[in-house]
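User: Could you walk me through two proteins back to back? I'd like the raw sequence and the structure tokens for each, with a short line separating them so I can tell where one ends and the next begins.

Assistant: Of course. Protein one, sequence then structure:
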Amino acid sequence: MSAGVIDIGSSSIKLIIGEKEKEEIKILESLRNPIPLGANTFLKGRISQDTINQTINFLERYKQVLQEYAVTEIRVVATTAVREARNRDIFIETVQRKTGFNVEVFNIGDIIYYIDVFLSHKLKKTYPIHDKNLLIVELGAGSVDVSVMERGYTLMNLGIPIGTLFLRQFMSQLGGSLEETHLAVQEYIENEMLYLKKM
């Protein structure tokens, strides 16, 4: 039986279709299309109508591909750019109405949970993570998501707005020389990391 996942990220939309083969997942199809969701949210605080329309167009194409593979198990998830948009509810409702897809917006804990599941599967023979204490860090376009785990139990989840696209947007709004911009970004990152350093 095959299943499909659509990931609505900050800089792209991705579709992966796979099926289980023994203990592994065989990838049947993998598609990726760039889209400026994060550029909208991190700069203007909301997703533009043009970007919503682009998203729907890509999702309609993905829907056709899913139908070609006769996939019935489908999950559509979104991360930082949708989560932090002021018009996220409008975005989700429009996508559902136009495509039939129900978008699940991941919080930081959700993202770290799936990273943990992936690591548990991939490293189960070489690094039994449920017997160790871990610091898991995921660098995304919108944020750096951090989880502190003790023998498989999550002690803390934290999202820090210093993702690659977020910082690029931040730098574009700064005036001054290149050196001044780098100092401002460095100061911003250090301030955002203060809470983590105290833990």
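----
Protein two, same layout:
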Amino acid sequence: MHNLLPGLRKFTHDVFPELKPEFESLSKGQTPHTLFITCSDSRVVPNLLTQTQPGEIFLVRNAGNIVPPFGASRGGEEAAIEFAIDGLKVTNIVICGHSHCGAMAAFLSPEKIQKMPSVRNWLEHAAATKRRLEAIKKGEIPTLLEVTEENVLVQADNLKTHPSVSAALREKRIRIYGWVYHFETGVVMIYDPLNHRYVCSSEVKEEASKDATRFCLA
């Protein structure tokens, strides 16, 4: 607690008073525009990364930014996705992986999680990532970055199996994007489905950023 209490005091006495009107408004309800699915890793701070304020993004976090296929887990992810889309009416979904991800590293060094049965079971929801990379690499060992990037795309496919997502896509109410955040450099790579590669967010031209469908995975 001694690491947390000073921050709590600073928030209550210094930070909150300046944001009080915003929080009073949020007490009446939330209207986030984006469902942000990312890893639990402490080095990933979504609001800092996107420079968004409280109330703007609805967060789902777990080890490896994994989205189990519909019905495969019956966990919190399934409920949160449904609520974000049908309850909060978000219009964007971002699946964001990150560099140096321990969950993805487990694919390359499974011995590191031999004594973590819950982690092993959880990562089974990303088994398709390993299979797809084996087909692509044809015997070569993929890099951690390749695993991370492919996993984002696999989880986007899993996301589409959820009825709320499928219906929203059919009605053109949502857009899905794939990102990989390199926290050591501050760079965010966005998947470009047209050219089948990740591009640096700083290289995305203004006109392209205004085109809502330009980087959509669906």
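Strands lie at 34-39, 57-62, 92-98, 175-182, 187-192, 197-200.

Let me know if you want the two compared in more detail.
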